[in-house]
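Homework help board

Subject: predicted structure for assignment chain

Our instructor gave us this sequence and asked us to write out the predicted structure in token form, then describe one feature. I got the tokens but I'm not sure how to describe them. Can anyone check?
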Amino acid sequence: MTRAELKKVLVVEKIFEGHMTNKEGAAALGLTERQVIRLKQKYQNKGGARALIHGNRGRKPAHALPDEVRAKAATLYTTKYQGSNN
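My token output:
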């Protein structure tokens, strides 16, 4: 969990405990009150802190090169095309 995600969790928990209002939470996170309300709903409905973790965590980017292509390019660079960029 990143620091930003951890901060969101702590602020949402403080709001639920009554130590902070939605407005104060929004100011602490740099969000609008409506976004804080959405975070609270997500936290409550989807199972706590895990709900606030970014959805793409652990996924490989769609535009990432396969490992075989990356290895082939590295091999060509060091053999066939060595010194061609000088």
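Reply (TA_rk): Your tokens look well-formed. For the description, you could write something like this. Residues 3-57 form one domain. That's the kind of observation they're looking for.
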